Amino acid sequence: MGRLDSGGVVDPAARDKYLLQVTAGPSYDSSTHQEVAVNSASAHIIENDIMTCYLHVKIRDYHGLPRGSPSSSDYFSHPLHTSDRYSIGFSFAPKKDIKGSDLVTGFDFDHSIKDRLPPGFRYAMRIVTTILDPGIYSDPYSDKPYLYGPALSSFFAFRIGERTSETSAEDQLATQKSDSKGVIEEGADGSGQRIRADHQIPAKISKRRKNFLDVKKQEDFIFEAGRMYHADFFNPYLDFANFALRIPGFSISVVRYIDDKTHQLRYVLKNRATEEVLFVVIFTLLFGQSLEDKLESERAEETQKATNNAEMSDSDSEHADRETRHEKATAANTLANSIYSGFAALGFGRTPSTSGSEATSKSTSPEREKMQTKTNLDKKVDEMGSGTVEEYLKTRNSTA
């Protein structure tokens, strides 16, 4: 296990023992997922029978796969996000109407984690549900624990777009990228402005979220088929760079609780009435043999890619040689009928020699160490001053 510094996070010198991998797909089945290029300007496109989604995952000080990913993003320089540590931003167009009260977002697991929950967890959940988001409902002690909230009150930023029949999804995304530098801001575009007005949706984020704690208002809102919606989920608490949870006053190293069952965090957008999944994002902390296997797989893919490129280059050269010989032979036959055929013939029969160069790919990694025995959570969660934390959270929520 990686060493921890005095702040309770992973020692930077030990970071290479852990790498974060982000994948996303249209279902819980990981075989339908593809690796997300974190901090990339290009969207990760997900499509199923429910919607088409354009996903961006941004992580401050990112250290993970794919190797060579940007360590950060301009997103974190935006005035709205200077204190945030990650963002799951997405634009989506439903393919069928979804009632506002049915669309939920949050985190869930397919296995029990109750033996992993730290002392003070119930108290922490009380803070979350009474101050941060009263719309949250959860059962962390069940066999398949979850923490969900209605999308309309849980989205930290929500923008209603135009119908794709009026303005294509690509054009709407291009406009948003140009006007807002890729940052999703609260509001609406085109006919989406009328929808916000008709539903009397407040312009301020905190008031919109509070407004949609009313179940009747959730039920009256419809996510229309064929209309673009933009949402962002972000906060300053999950520190993926150091594998830590940062609560005001101290940090808890997530690495302490990582094993083969608890090395993934799963974010989902789903229809709770039908259990249909719109998309799933999985954050996986790779370590030990899993990390070695993944890096070895990458090296094999890079080697195969280099070999394929070399073979394609050789094939292209041979093809070019054949075409050159054919063209010159045709010209020779034509020129043979003229008085200059003898001279012209001197220029034929010599084919330029070209060959593809085979690229080599070297990928090295430091020696990996296996995880040590899991340790208990320190008692700082129970020792934190409730007055200090609640005052901080109230202040931050009131200025959202």
Automatic annotation (TrEMBL):
Domain of unknown function at the cortex domain segment(s): 20-285
Basic and acidic residues: bias regions: 316-327, 365-383
Cited InterPro entries: Duc1
Location of region: Disordered: 167-189, 297-327, 350-400
Compositional bias annotation for Polar residues: 351-364
Name by which UniProt lists this protein: DUF1769-domain-containing protein
